[in-house]
Amino acid sequence: MDYLGKFHSASTILPYCVKKMAPESEYKNALLYLKIIDLSSNKLVGGIGQIKLLESLDLSRNQLSGMIPQDFANLTFLSVLDLSNNHLSGRIPSSTQLQSFDRSSYSGNAQLCGPPLEECP
């Protein structure tokens, strides 16, 4: 994927990748059907955005910032999660799913708190 270098956030690269895979008439809602996303180690910056119906999400080792979207609490099919080594902050949204992941899924985000990490002040 040589074209990844010109993108700076997940919100710009995901629609581009989907557009390259399908004609315009088919890609408009394709993000709703993604099951696996691995954009680790891409130096992406900015926020995470809204992504639904995922089974696997690896956004580790980027420069993502802000809070984990509350919508992530509704990702009931998510079985793999790695948000480590970014600049995420705030409380991890409460859900059975997000709290079931190991602390390592969230490590390296100094201002992130809540189970399974330390309680928020």
Main sheet overview: 4 strands, parallel
Q: State the CATH architecture.
A: Alpha-Beta Horseshoe
Low-confidence stretches: 1-13, 16-20
Radius of gyration: 14 Å
Number of strands: 7
The end-to-end span amounts to 42 Å
In what range is the share of β-strand residues? 15-25%
CATH domain class: Alpha Beta
Structural class by helix and strand composition: alpha/beta
Number of helices: 3
Task: Jot down its keywords.
disordered N terminus, alpha/beta, 121 residues, Leucine-rich repeat, LRR (right-handed beta-alpha superhelix), 3 helices, 4-stranded parallel sheet, 3-stranded parallel sheet
Describe this entry's structure for a reader.
By secondary structure, the protein is α/β, with parallel strands linked by helices. The protein has a single domain (2-113), classed as Leucine-rich repeat, LRR (right-handed beta-alpha superhelix) (Alpha-Beta Horseshoe), CATH 3.80.10. It has helices at residues 10-21, 24-27, 96-99, and strands at residues 36-38, 45-46, 56-58, 63-66, 80-82, 87-91, 111-113. The protein has a 4-stranded parallel beta sheet, with no helix packed on it. Helix 3 (96-99) links the parallel strand 6 (87-91) and strand 7 (111-113). The relative contact order is 0.14.
